[in-house]
## 1
Amino acid sequence: MQYSELKEKSLKELQDLLLEYKAELFSLRFKNATRQLDQVHKIDLIKKDIARTLTAINVKKLEQKSPKMSNNKKEETNKGDK
């Protein structure tokens, strides 16, 4: 899943998605250990999805803690562009 899609989800949805990804990773690792997994590259893809989801969760938590800081950063980047 793309990061832009993850940014639109709520914190609860992201946490549920993270649990699904972790369960899928466990399943893939188990299949790989028993030599039943043909597409080993899927493990890497799921790990990247987990990392993207964790990043989105951390950004959401930071925005909830300090909404002023996220607005200031946006203003600073806009000033730098001019």
Note: Helices lie at 3-7, 11-33, 41-65, 67-81.
## 2
Amino acid sequence: MKNIAVIGAGTMGNGIAHTFAQSGFNVQLIDINEASLKRGMDTIAKNLDRMVAKEKISEADKAETLGNIKTYTNTEEGVKNVDLVVEAATENIDLKLKIFKQLDDVCNNDTILATNTSSISITQIAAVTSRPEKVIGMHFMNPVPIMKLVEIIRGYNTSDEVTKTIMDLSKTLGKVPTEVNDYPGFVANRILMPMLNESIETLYNGVAGVEEIDTVMKLGMAHPMGPLQLADFIGLDVCLSILNVMYDGFKNPKYAPCPLLVNMVRAGKLGVKSGEGFYDYSESRKAEYVSKQFMK
């Protein structure tokens, strides 16, 4: 397995492309938007520059990594003769089903199709293809080049051979693959998202402010980042989407998203990506918390 296609040049997609390319794989990074591809490649170059500055890699390593990546706006051309496709598009079920239908049509019959979904059923995605045994979840963590974990999610029909191949492949990337079963949220988000949602509920109910909640979890529970700040970094729209998938999948009210989260997403307050969430990320108020206005 040497040739990898990555669908989506956003935060997760460019991180996945970076990681494979740095490990010596030929990477074909695909996005329908040329501007997104440019931003993705710029991000990879900046992250490599940081690694050079920290003397983790050489300038030659950086040049080789960038040389291993080619960009495409045409999916059919981009996935030609690849061994593995990793889809890292927006966490939207309709979009993912559309992408996998197309991939099934244009990829070689022996190509493995993986998704970086953090919550959506692998079995449901696989069902729109003619190769459900070759569909699997590869849930990387952000930032991909740094975080060691990869959740490997087997769909109902994913074969043992494909699972072993992807587990072994993840190890060659320097990752720690962990096999889990296909239920909403898998393991990482099934545990993480209710905690973030409860933190938002705590704020919404006026128990404490943003800084106070994050301070309790950082100093009292040894979390490197408070839950509200973490939600900002993940993206409040992403948190809402995952909670909705879990709520729909389990029909359990404990997964229902907090009304404050819903309203913030409607208002376009998505966290770091929009410049404001529970914190203000504008240049003049770098990561300053915005506390009292959130209380119920």
Note: The first strand starts at residue 3 and ends at 7.
